[in-house]
Amino acid sequence: MKNKSLSVQFVKYCFVGAISFVADFSSLTVLQVTIFKNIKSGLYIATALGFLIGMIINFILSKNHVFSSLDSRTNNNRIDFLLYLIIGIIGLLITEIGMFVGTKTLLINYKISKIFVAGIVLIWNFLARRFLIYKQGVDK
């Protein structure tokens, strides 16, 4: 039962992640080709802003649709958001490092790099948020 519940949560989180990724990726692309087009480190700024937009959307959707049947460890939405933010910042660091390695070391297009990095960050975010923010055990 517990593994099934975790599997269902992960599937839901993938849908939420897909919506968040579209917001993140779209923001990154629009910002990169407009505002940050001619700025040397513009790609990394656009990446961070896109990631932040995606993270906010992910928090709202996850809290209401993925983990809604679980009790928070803190029972405090502000602390939950702070923990969510810390996990997201670690995800952002993974994203920025992945974007740098993908575009500068492996010479892969930034859009392709972003897709690979997003998959890694999806798994990190789900596991960290599920096990650090929410109580273990059976769903309510």
Kindly summarize this structure in a few lines.
It contains four helices and no strands. It has 140 residues and is an all-alpha fold.
What characteristics describe this protein?
0% strand; 140 residues
Description:
The structure is a single chain. The chain has 140 residues and is an all-alpha fold. It has one domain. It is 79% helix and 0% strand. The protein has four helices and no strands. Helix 3 (77-105) runs antiparallel to helix 4 (110-133). 29% of the residues are buried. The mean pLDDT is 88.
Shape: elongated
Instruction: Indicate the mean pLDDT.
Output: 88
The major β-sheet equals: none
| Weakly predicted, low-confidence segments | none
Strand content: under 5%
* Assembly status: single chain
Q: What structural class do you assign from the helix and strand content? A: mainly alpha
User: What fraction, in percent, of the residue positions are helical?
Assistant: over 70%
Helix/strand layout:
Elements: H1 2-33, H2 42-66, H3 77-105, H4 110-133
Helix pairs in contact: 1-2, 1-4, 2-3, 3-4
